[in-house]
Design a protein that fits this description.
globular, six-stranded mixed β-sheet, 367 residues, single chain, 17% strand, alpha/beta
C-alpha cells in the first residue's frame, strides 16, 4: 500500500509518499502561509507524485471521541471541525488541507491520524485537572497531550535500537522542536505527558511559555486590563525562548550563551531547568527509567542541550558519553558504556507512524 502522508505546518504543507516498505518515493513541501493552500500548486505537486493507494492526514486534536486512527467520512470531518476551538491554530489548517487534497485526489481512502490519540488512555490521575465538578461535567476539561505520533514512533524505534520488546521498556521520550513535550511510555503506552488541555502547558518552547501560574495570568488581566486575546497572543507567540532571549531559534540561543549574552544564558538555563524537571517527573510516573530518547529538531541537532539535560539526571542513572553525544548521527545510542539508562537520539518520523496507522486501519487491524 502506497501512502501519501499529509502534514500541515504553520507555513507549509509537507507531502510524502511511502511505499509498502516505507521507502520514500516522493517528498515535497508546498507553501501554505497562514494555512492558506493554493490548490493549483498542490495539484501540480501531487501530479509529480506516484498515485497513492491511501492518504494519511496528521490531525492535532481528536477530542475525547477519536482515540485511534479513523477512516475519514463527512460525519467524521464535521466532528473534527467542531473541535477547532480546542486547537484553533492547528485544526482549521489540517481540515483545509484535508479538503484540498480530497479535491485533487478524490476517491482515495483517507485516514485521520491524531496527535492526541497516543495519550487518550492516560490514567485518570494523569489526565484529570482538579477543577470544580460542574465545570468538568459541562466541558471536556482534561489533559489531552500532543505530539503523540512523534512520541509513539520514538518509543517504538528506541525499543528496536535496544533490541528489546517495547512492552518491557520504560521510556521517557523528549520531543524538542518549536513545540516541545515529554511522554512517559510504559508497556508501549503513554502514562503521562507534559502538554495538557492545550499545547501551551509544560516545557518552555520556541515562542510558547509552557506552564505558568494561572494566578499570574489573572493578575496581569486585572492589573493591566489585558483581554483574553492579548494574553493568548503573548503566551503563544511572544514567550518561551523568544520572550527570554529575543529569538525563537535554539541555535542562536546557544551561540549567544556561549558568547556570554546574559539573556541567552538565562533562556538556556530556564529551558534546561524545566526540561530536567519534566524528565524526572516522567520517570517518577514510570517508577524508574530504562531509556531516555531525544527527538525533534532541537532534540536531534543540539548536543549541548542533551548534555545539559543529562548532567542533572545522574540520580536517575543517566550518563551520556561526551564524544558519542557530540558526534551522534540519528538513531544512535549516546549513553556512556556503564550507564544504567540508555540515552538515544532518534530521528523524528511522524510520516512512518502515520503510514503504519493508515495501513492497519484500512486493513481492519487495531493500531
Amino acid at each position: 500500500m502506497r501512502v501519501l502522508v499529509v502534514n500541515v505546518g504553520s507555513s507549509s504543507l509537507k507531502l510524502r509518499v511511502l511505499d509498502h516498505d516505507d521507502a520514500v518515493l516522493a517528498d515535497e513541501e508546498v507553501p501554505a502561509p497562514r494555512g492558506e493552500i493554493d490548490e493549483e500548486t498542490l495539484h501540480a505537486a501531487l501530479g509529480r507524485f506516484p498515485r497513492p493507494d491511501a492518504i494519511g492526514h496528521r490531525i492535532v486534536h481528536g477530542g475525547e471521541r477519536y482515540r485511534r486512527p479513523t477512516r475519514l467520512a463527512p460525519r467524521v470531518v464535521e466532528d473534527l471541525r467542531s473541535l477547532s476551538a480546542l486547537a484553533p491554530l492547528h485544526q482549521p489548517r489540517a481540515l483545509a488541507a484535508l479538503g484540498a487534497v480530497e479535491r485533487v485526489l478524490p476517491n482515495v481512502p483517507a485516514v485521520a491520524c491524531f496527535d492526541t490519540a497516543f495519550h487518550a488512555a492516560l490514567p485518570a490521575a494523569a489526565a484529570t485537572y482538579a477543577l470544580p465538578s460542574a465545570w468538568r461535567e459541562r466541558w471536556p476539561l482534561r489533559r489531552y497531550g500532543f505530539h503523540g505520533l512523534s512520541h509513539a514512533y520514538a518509543a517504538r524505534r528506541a525499543a528496536e535500537l535496544l533490541e528489546r520488546d517495547l512492552g518491557d521498556v520504560r521510556i521517557v521520550s523528549c520531543h524538542l522542536g518549536a513545540g516541545a513535550s515529554l511522554a512517559a511510555v510504559a508497556g508501549g503506552r503513554s502514562v503521562d505527558t507534559t502538554m495538557g488541555f492545550t499545547p501551551l502547558e509544560g516545557l518552555v518552547m520556541a515562542t510558547r511559555s509552557g506552564s505558568v501560574d494561572p494566578g499570574l495570568v489573572l493578575w496581569l488581566m486585572r492589573q493591566d486590563e489585558l483581554d483574553a486575546a492579548q494574553v493568548a497572543e503573548a503566551l503563544e507567540h511572544e514567550s518561551g525562548l523568544a520572550g527570554l532571549a529575543g529569538t525563537d531559534d535554539m541555535r542562536a540561543v546557544l551561540a549567544g550563551a556561549t558568547a556570554g549574552d546574559a539573556d541567552a544564558s538565562l533562556a538556556l538555563d530556564v529551558y534546561v531547568h524545566r526540561l530536567r524537571a519534566g524528565i524526572a517527573a516522567m520517570a517518577a510516573a514510570l517508577g524508574g527509567l530504562d531509556a531516555l530518547v531525544f527527538t525533534g529538531r532541537v532534540g536531534e541537532r543540539a548536543p549541548q542541550v542533551r548534555a545539559l539535560a543529562a548532567r542533572g539526571l545522574g540520580f536517575l542513572g543517566v550518563r551520556v558519553d561526551p564524544a558519542a553525544n557530540a558526534a551522534a548521527a540519528l538513531d544512535a545510542d549516546i549513553a556512556a558504556a556503564a550507564s544504567a539508562v540508555r540515552t538515544l537520539v532518534v530521528a523524528s518520523r511522524e510520516d512512518l507512524e502515520i503510514a503504519r496507522e493508515v495501513r492497519e486501519t484500512l486493513d481492519g487491524a487495531t493500531p
